[in-house]
Amino acid sequence: MPDATQRADRPSLAVIALCFGGLTAALTQTMVIPIQSDLPRLLDAAAVDTAWVVTITLLSAAVAMPITGRIADMIGKQRVLVASAVVLLVGSVVCALADGLAAMLVGRSLQGVAMGFIPVGIALLREIVPPDLAATAIAAMSATLGVGGAIGLPLSAWIVDVGDWHLLFWVSSGAAALVLVAVLALVPHVHDARPARFDVPGAIGLAVGLVLALVGLSKASTWGWGDERTVGCLVGGILVLVAWAWLELRTSEPLVDLRSTARLPVLLTNIAAVAIGMGMMAQAIVIPQLLQIPEQAGYGLGQSILATGLWMAPGGLMMMVFAPVSSRLITGIGAKPTLMIGATVLGLGYVVALGLMGSPWQLVIATLVISTGVGIGYAAMPTLILDASPPHEAGSAVGVNTLMRSLGTTIASALMATVLTSSTMSLGPVAVPTESAFRWCFVISAAAALVGVAIAATIPRRRTDVDAEPELATADA
């Protein structure tokens, strides 16, 4: 592997540029939430159609992350980061200019594609920063997934309060432009490309399978779990993914090397990612709803969207604060114990939440504990993946891991929505979830996190065959 002087002249600035890019990409995922209920009026479309403004970003991000990672391994990670920043900029401008649903969906899908920036950036960090900075840099970059989402809610609520809703997307356009300049100026290009034939059938099969499965999951609470559309999407998605896996195993240069993915350290880390992704989702879905339930319900806290965002923001910042702590844990005791600690703290955070539902400041305490667990656990997963994967598959491997986290959050989102809508009470003309429904969501989330602990405990500690493979990347002169 190249030494520190060959990697980046200013490694700290490169880390800042990549973390800012990840933060900006993640922020776009939640920025439409404050205007979601107004989208039918703003876009002159039915509510059932404008719901796709959120869903399409989730779908395009899920499809893009493994595909973007594979392309990065083939042509070079810095080039793909530049392309992702351009896609984010174009998508944000399209949304800023949109006055109809079609244009908005195009822009939002492009913003989702740009989420591939995060796994590729994580994979590149180990190549361009010194070894003593790598763990901290990867932890900080991993934290941007949560921090961007947490900051996006109060920031966008404030922007909508003071200006036109289009300003949301002009702000993200400006941030995307800064990301593009920062990546071009501060992130070095390294000779890490490994030319290969791009697996077009594999990309199409993965995209179709994921979209069908994720549409079924995300719409299950709306359509009903027994609805033929839900069942059709879920069964169809699973069948397509099974056929895709069969094809990938028989392809000489597959989109995803399933044999490498089946290595126990990688496989078990990805399964743990699903469980931990499920565990962290209640913080993003359930706690904001609990904060906004009217006080007349007897347990609601009656907070506005802006106030809710501000109450949630410290949790996002806590993830970033714990990046160096996670780094020291990874260096001192290893990534596997660090992942177990993070998942344990995450589960305990929901236990704390069960006893602290009486006021916003109490929920902030629970959120801080939960966010601490997320920050520690999310930082450890990429390290486990990178340690167990060949360097020429790093982008693809981290992309698949990030996809598995997203799959966990999608499953949890559907499950939480089902729980919250299955036990309701009337509050005037509106039905709201009961207090017990919120408690069950916390219990389920704690259980998912503890399952993640159990799975992480089975991850083998040391690399085997990957140790012998030399690093391929060398920096430009």
Q: N- to C-terminal separation?
A: 15 Å
The total domain count is: 3
CATH architecture descriptor name of the largest domain = Up-down Bundle
Counting DSSP H or I runs of 4 or more residues, the number of helices is 20
**Strand coverage percent:** under 5%
Please name the CATH topology of the largest domain: Growth Hormone, Chain: A
| Assembly level | single chain
Q: What is the C-level CATH assignment of the largest domain?
A: Mainly Alpha
List keywords for this structure.
477 residues, 2% strand, 76% helix, mainly alpha, two-stranded antiparallel ribbon, single chain, disordered N terminus
Structure description:
The structure is a single chain. The chain is an all-alpha fold and 477 residues long. A hairpin with a 2-residue loop joins strand 1 and strand 2 (430-433). It folds into three domains: 1-190, MFS general substrate transporter like domains (Growth Hormone, Chain: A, Up-down Bundle); 199-254; 259-464, MFS general substrate transporter like domains (Growth Hormone, Chain: A). Helix 5 runs antiparallel to helix 11 (200-223). The protein has 20 helices and two strands. Residues 1-6 and 463-477 have low confidence and may be disordered. It starts with a helix and ends in a 21-residue tail after the last helix. Strands 1-2 form a two-stranded antiparallel sheet. The protein is globular.
How would you summarize the topology of this molecule?
Blueprint: H1 4-7, H2 11-30, H3 39-43, H4 47-50, H5 52-75, H6 77-97, H7 101-113, H8 117-128, H9 131-162, H10 166-186, H11 200-223, H12 228-248, H13 258-261, H14 264-292, H15 305-321, H16 323-333, H17 335-355, H18 360-388, H19 394-422, E1 424-427, E2 430-433, H20 435-456
Helix pairs in contact: 2-8, 2-9, 2-10, 5-6, 5-7, 5-8, 5-11, 5-19, 6-7, 6-8, 6-10, 8-9, 8-19, 9-15, 9-16, 9-18, 11-12, 11-19, 14-18, 14-19, 14-20, 15-18, 16-17, 16-18, 17-18, 17-20, 18-19, 19-20
